[in-house]
Amino acid sequence: MTIWDSIILGIVEGLTEFLPVSSTGHLTIVAKMLGLQIDDPSITGFTAVIQIGAIAAVVLFFWKDIQRIAIAWVRGLVKPEHRGEFDHRMGWYVIVGSTPIVIVGFLARDIISGPLRSLWWVAAALIGWSVVMVAAERVGSKSRPLTRITLVDAIVMGLVQCLALIPGISRSGATISAGLFRGLDRVAATRISFLLGIPALVGAGVYELKDALNGDVGAVPLIVGTIVSFVVAYASVAWLLRFVAKHTIEVFAFYRVLLGIVLVILLATSTITAT
């Protein structure tokens, strides 16, 4: 992997990690176009590690919220009278909602980094989950703000987040859709999606670091890709929160379908190979 490869992939990661278009799917497609072996453990490890840059951007963007939630959570552990506070409950919601993907991701790690790295899976997931996103927009009442989120919401969103282990589904697309189905408004669903992604993506990045370093990638491309993804992701997060406040996420679904169709055509005509 060259430095230019890492810069390109870092830009793709930063742009797509928090948009409901599937960062893993886009990284897989772009890595293939760059001539990289997409099912190589060092390449899948690289794509997981540079997610840490995007997560660092979210942590910085939501630092005041994260700090307030963490303090309230700890305070509630020590003093029972604070356990009814919203921020204390939110701390538990993030912990409980993040647990399923950690367990499933660890148990299914060989499948995720192997057979599911086929571009046929990416194309099918891009198109298939777009239907779910459109349905979530049209069925969900979008009547509940962030302050009315419940433990059940967090559990449902956390379970659905596990589906994002399939390249092409999109972690944010899965969790935002689940939140909309539960009646949360777009901003609430999106903010919870960001918070649920922090433990999951940090864990994946740390776990995959050894494969990325032990392969042909090298430390310098990893550092460059992570820094680039951080810068681009920060701008992406700010833009998405403003966008969902006034616009439907259906536009992302239509883009996903178009990309999936193009990918199917390229695969069917042997213009590119699936792995």
Average per-residue pLDDT, rounded, comes to: 91
Using DSSP, what is the number of strands? 0
User: What Rg do the Cα atoms give?
Assistant: 18 Å
Helix and strand sequence: HHHHHHHHHHHHH
Distance linking N and C termini: 17 Å
Catalogue the unreliable spans. none
Q: What fraction of the residues are assigned to beta strands by DSSP?
A: under 5%
Shape estimate: globular
General description of the model:
- The chain crosses the membrane at residues 43-63, 92-112, 118-136, 189-207, 219-241, 253-274.
- One of its GO terms (molecular function) is undecaprenyl-diphosphatase activity.
- The protein is mainly alpha-helical and 275 residues long.
- The protein has one domain (3-268).
- It is 75% helix and 0% strand.
- It contains 13 helices and no strands.
- It has helices at 3-16, 23-33, 41-49, 51-61, 63-78, 86-107, 109-113, 119-139, 151-161, 171-181, 186-214, 219-244, 250-268.
- Helix 4 (51-61) packs antiparallel against helix 11 and helix 8 runs antiparallel to helix 13 (250-268).
- The longest helix is centred in the C-terminal third of the chain and has 29 residues, at 186-214.
- It is globular, with a radius of gyration of 18 Å.
- The model has no long low-confidence stretch (mean pLDDT 91).
